[in-house]
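Lecture notes, part 5. Sequence design as translation. It can be helpful to think of inverse folding as translation between two languages: the language of shapes and the language of residues. The source text, in structure tokens, appears below.
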């Protein structure tokens, strides 16, 4: 079934229908109408999947998608238009242009943690750029996956856009096909599997992966505000966010004040009993619950630490001074657990941060601008914030993506359109003049060439 579906999309792409901008715009407009109509159903599916709070679903899923969609509809004419660039003197007289050309058949594989937004945002861009798409949502968020399927089926012809549901077996079958572009969001390990499958056909990829994101708090930070912003960035989606702060590195002089402020802010956000709060999500499944619960064993949970296996609940938790080789400091946490490690001198943090692969994000809390700037420049990471967490994600003028182990490529805003477009360079040479300098015989022309090439 998968090879046949893909072949039907390749045949459809070759009809050139998706290449006209008016067709793409109409498709996006139809999608927009459907998404607006179904917003309540989307919020409800997310709630059923992991008790995602409705407010968070609007803030981090439906509204993000709608903004990307509206931004694409508004700008698609200018994005898709061939762009004139300055010609090279050597080619005089010529007109040089960059054409944004769709790759063709695109595969999008999505994760479960923002199962709607991380499926829809790349899908919108792939359609805007004129590709056909097969989307594979995560098998762990079945309500959202079913709804995505229903939405796509009602808006698009299957040869244009289709959803294929399933787990690893289906994903493996999809990856065995020859695609023109693969866009993957998920874990580092599966990212490597995707890259290997893509390499077989030299298929270009975007890999949006994860990592262990440091959050540095220096001695000058405004602790109450820092705590408030960390509580939001860490515990939104119950910590199941690829750009959530993973661990805290704090100047020892501020640690106690930080704990006090975190207690206050957690209570303000989720009350004394976060389990009863409507605003705190659950861990996606038992496997992840068990993985996270293991991190708490033999640790000093100075805040939180309560768990409930029956409902996959883990309280907002802080671990005081875990050993660097313990479970919680091994890999990306991806849950509401926040280890806190103190330092005396800022130079101590280098070895800790550098012992992990390049993270997807890094955060610095400091009121010393020079120090903050130094830290942001010193370490390599996908993107991040000074004096806040996570919010760099919302600016569509900023690329969103990782570096090294945390990913290859980036998207959002116009960059999403560019991600799914090959930039084709075309020089249109005029015939009214044909400078003889490049043609043989070359005798005596070298001086000319050296001069002209300097004026590139
Ligand atoms: P995952 O890698 O387990 O799964 C992602 C997708 O890959 C799913 O659709 C799944 O069915 C498929 N998949 C799983 N195993 C596979 C295999 N062996 N072969 C082929 N396909 C396979 O990731 P997840 O658990 O869904 O998501 C969590 C991870 O994703 C975290 O590491 C997080 O940091 C990362 N993430 C990154 C971003 C980002 O934008 N950079 C966003 C969200 C999540």
């Amino acid at each position: 079934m998968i090879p046949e579906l893909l072949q039907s999309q390749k045949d459809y792409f070759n009809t050139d229908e998706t290449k006209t901008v008016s067709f793409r715009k109409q498709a996006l407009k139809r999608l927009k109408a459907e998404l607006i109509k179904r917003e309540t159903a989307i919020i409800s599916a997310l709630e059923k999947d992991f008790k995602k709070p409705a407010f968070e679903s609007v803030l981090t899923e439906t509204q993000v998608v709608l903004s990307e969609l509206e931004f694409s509809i508004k700008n698609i004419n200018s994005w898709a238009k061939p762009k004139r660039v300055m010609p090279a003197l050597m080619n005089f007289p010529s007109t040089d242009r960059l054409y944004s050309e769709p790759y063709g058949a695109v595969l999008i594989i999505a994760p479960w943690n923002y199962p709607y937004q991380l499926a829809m945002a790349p899908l919108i861009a792939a359609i805007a750029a004129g590709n056909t798409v097969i989307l594979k949502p995560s098998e762990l968020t079945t309500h959202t996956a079913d709804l995505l399927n229903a939405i796509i089926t009602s808006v698009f012809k299957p040869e244009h856009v289709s959803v294929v549901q399933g787990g690893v077996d289906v994903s493996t079958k999809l990856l065995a096909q020859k695609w023109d572009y693969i866009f993957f969001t998920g874990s580092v390990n599966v990212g490597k599997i995707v890259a290997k499958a893509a390499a077989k056909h030299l298929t270009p990829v975007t890999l949006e992966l994860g990592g262990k994101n440091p959050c540095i708090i220096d001695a000058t930070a405004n602790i109450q505000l820092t705590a408030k912003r960390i509580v939001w960035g860490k515990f939104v989606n119950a910590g199941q966010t690829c750009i959530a702060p993973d661990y805290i590195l704090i100047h020892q002089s501020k640690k106690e004040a930080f704990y006090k402020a975190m207690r206050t802010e957690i209570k303000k956000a989720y009350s004394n009993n976060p389990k009863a709060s409507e605003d705190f999500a659950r861990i996606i499944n038992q496997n992840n619950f068990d993985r996270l619960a293991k991190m708490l064993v033999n640790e000093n949970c100075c805040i939180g630490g309560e768990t409930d296996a029956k409902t996959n609940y883990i309280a907002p938790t802080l671990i005081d001074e875990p050993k660097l080789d313990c479970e919680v400091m091994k890999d990306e946490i991806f849950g509401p657990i926040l280890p806190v490690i103190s330092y005396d001198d800022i130079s101590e943090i280098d070895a800790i941060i550098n012992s992990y692969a390049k993270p997807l994000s890094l955060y610095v809390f400091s009121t010393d601008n020079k120090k903050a700037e130094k830290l942001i420049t010193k370490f390599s990471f996908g993107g991040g914030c000074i004096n806040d967490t996570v919010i760099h994600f919302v600016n569509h003028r900023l690329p969103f993506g990782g570096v090294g182990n945390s990913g290859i490529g980036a998207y959002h805003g116009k960059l999403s359109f560019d991600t799914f477009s090959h930039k084709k360079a075309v020089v249109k040479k005029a015939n009214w003049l044909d400078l003889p300098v490049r043609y043989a015989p070359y005798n005596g022309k070298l001086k000319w060439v050296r001069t002209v090439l300097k004026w590139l």
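The translated text above is only one of many valid answers, since several sequences can fold into similar shapes. DSSP finds 15 helices and 20 strands in the chain.
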